Batch of 2 targets.
Target 1
Amino acid sequence: MHIVISDDYQNCVRRLDCFAKLRGHDVTIHCDTVTGTDALAERFGNAEAIVLIRDRTRIDAALLARLPRLRFIAQTGALGPHVDLAACARHGIRTSECSGTGSATSELTMLLILASLRRLTDECSRLKSGQWQGSLGRQLSGRTLGVFGFGRIGAQVAKLGAAFGAKVVVWGRDTTLAKAQLVGFEAARTKAEFFARCDLITLHLRASVNAEPLVSADDLACMKRDAILINTSRAAVIERGALERALRAGRPGFAAVDVYDHEPILGATDPLLQLPNCLCTPHLGFVERDNYEAYFGNAFDSIVAFANS
């Protein structure tokens, strides 16, 4: 089969151990992102199978109509609104979604929480510039950690935060709150109380197409001046532009973000990157070797099974 993999930003897929599973197949890998139906149709025009890296590429009905050879789409992670499943069915294109290790994003979230509290990147920069200690950081133990969303990742972060001695408070849908309470975590009484009370808030939510953002400018304005917001889920869960305005206004006082409205960001064009009170990482949440071996290994297994069926 001719297999096309796009958006391999680090040019790492060929170096994964699991890549050997595709031996005997014709594989084309692109390390950049293109957008628009024409560019994507040219890229995938001869593909019999496509491997999607999370939601970096949008596969819609207009594109599928121009891919007559396509028979299979292997999705690393969950199939979401970036893939038109109804159009896939109409064209007879089979799909699969492939899971990873499940802990990479929660580990990065904890890294961002601790680095933000201890002003780690600032202190490292001071030392490299010839200076010594310049700030007093804070510890996580004893502080109130708010977890918005209690799915798989949110639950992992709650447990990790509690292990560091944080008081964990959860907010989300009624089913979310009930699930959190069932395993011993406190549920906030209201959304306003949640945002006003927590010293740190970490977001673990799914963004839906055409849905209202789950975090508004008013929510952010409720936060403490020394509070920290962490977002490793999706940029769209926050009202567009609201976090930049909130950080400039000082509520919250600091943020750590791993996700952006438009990705990849080249040339440091996102306004959050220009703010001294925002720690920014380039969507590293799921980007980790063990996770990639699991994601792509499962994706390649599904392609090989389809090719042999």
Target 2
Amino acid sequence: MVVLEGVVVKREAQRIDVLLEGKVLRGIPRGKVRTSERIYAGDIVSGYTEGDGIFVIEDIKERKNLLIRPPVANVDCVIIVSTLREPEFNNFMLDNLLVVYEKEGVGIYIVFNKVDLLDKEGKEELKRWSNIYENVGYKVLAVSVITGEGLEEFSNIFEPGIYVFAGPSGTGKSSLISAISGVDLKKGEVSRKTGRGKHTTTGVSLLMLEGGVFVADTPGFSKVDALKFIDRENVKDYFREFRNYVCKFKDCLHVKEEGCAVKEAVSKGEISAERYKSYLRIIS
């Protein structure tokens, strides 16, 4: 029996789809995989074909990482999609997400979508937030699926690997994937009553683009708590700008400690007050 290797491109409830040599087969776990291991989108699995359209999964290759939210394995880069309008920008959620993905050591892009909705004041606000995150060291892009603004630059960031689109519901993750892939994914709308996006994606699927690029459209969410993934005393390690400063005490939490270089940097405007407030809220 020839052992074959494929990539899990869909995991939704009990449904597992495996991409093998250009074809998508229904994955059926057997043996220890069925009884003691969980399979995620992005997993590289080995096994054999059986019957028509069935791939029997016997083993899972060791993962280089595993994101819990969203649940995707072997991720190379996370694209966090935000908006300033519809829904309103939530920098606290963005900072929570950044902490979680910093811990995983994956590449990160911040993409502001729906910039066509911004008036002059909104564009100034976009510039201010973009500068804050660019100064920290993040790559920030501004795009509009409606007008096409920024889409060419956005499309050029992709190299072979697995990319996860994450962020609040209603920010247009599915629409962005549709724009770069040509595949018309189901679109969601922003609820007029709540101002939040409707959940349009219930499972995790990988869409294969040209050149070995996989993109994951994942469920949106309205709240993220970094402390569910990281111990409180370690959160400071995942705020990039904090790493540039040496405090008097190695275990300084940058709250009330004497000789805190981070607090001094905030007071001088060297560290964004908004980012520091997010840090204090996360660990509180």
